[in-house]
Amino acid sequence: IQISDNWPGYSLDLFTYPQHYYGDLEYVLIPHGIIVDRTERLAKDIMQDIGDNDIVVLCVLKGGYKFCADLVEHIKNLSRNSERFISMKVDFVRLKSYHNDQSMQDMQITGGDDLSKLTGKVYFLCLALLCFLLTIFFMFCKDIVGTGRTMKVLLNNIEKYKPKMIKVASLLVKRTSRPDGYRPDYYGFEIPDLFVVGYALDYNEHFRDLNHICVINDHGKAKYRV
């Protein structure tokens, strides 16, 4: 689903959201109900494509945890009601490459079990947000971290253990002019180059409790800047 650059979004007055964020948001970009429906469709697509393979799901924290949890739950429900059962194991890593709303040069990767156990396994990266360049069509993605540079580092760390297959699911893909973006195997929404919060996407650890995906305003950035 593509959201155009001139999409005005939804008025905040149409939705409920935490009172402590009043005055900090511009508008609702994607309401929670639409996120849920789109995630369920992604789960169906993954079920159709994965075949009889068991999978290891790598959730990229912290921004990816809500999308990952909902996606995995939808896959489990589909698996329980189908003739073929898909076994899933879930692991977690954390990436850090933002300071306020700016992407940092250096990135930190922490967490995760011994990745050598992934040899020969089908591997799913479950993330929240990816930035990509429209003219490039590689099949990768990343979470809330801002550029494809992040995905290169993470994938290089995984690929050296020779998993049978790597697939990437991202809730959001952000259009950007930066030349190091990627495109995921599965994604929910393609959005303009905006700094978005909500549905576990944060700004300095705030807004994770916001169910809708919203655009933060200048007042919100100044209020929670560190």
UniProtKB/TrEMBL annotation:
Residue spans crossing the bilayer: 122-141
Q: Which residues form the Phosphoribosyltransferase domain?
A: 34-121, 143-203
Q: What is this protein called?
A: Phosphoribosyltransferase domain-containing protein 1
Recorded hits in PANTHER family, A to Z, give: HYPOXANTHINE-GUANINE PHOSPHORIBOSYLTRANSFERASE, PHOSPHORIBOSYLTRANSFERASE DOMAIN-CONTAINING PROTEIN 1
Q: Name one GO molecular function term.
A: nucleotide binding
According to its UniProt entry, this protein's organism is: Dromaius novaehollandiae
Which ranges of the sequence are coiled-coil?
A: none
Please give the superkingdom of this protein's source. Answer: Eukaryota
Its gene name is: Prtfdc1
